[in-house]
Amino acid sequence: KAILGRFVDENPKIGDRVEITFENVIDQNLLIFKHA
Asked: Hey, what's the torsion of the CAs at 31, 24, 10, 36, to 10 degrees?
């Protein structure tokens, strides 16, 4: 998955945003830190 901010920017439709839950935000943040 793309980094959260990019995912939202590139997929502005509401249907695409439904996937972005609180848990997904945590997962993305952990991935960002691991790959930083």
From this structure: -10
Whole-number Å distance between alpha carbons of 2 and 8: 9
Tens-place pLDDT, residues 3-19: 555 555 555 565 555 55
Report how far residue 25's alpha carbon sits from residue 32's, in angstroms, rounded to the nearest whole number. Answer: 10
The alpha-carbon radius of gyration of the chain (Å, integer) is: 10
- pTM exceeds cut of 0.70: no
Closest CA to 2 of 31, 23, 36: 31
**8-14, Cβ contacts within 8 angstroms, sequence gap of 24 or more:** none
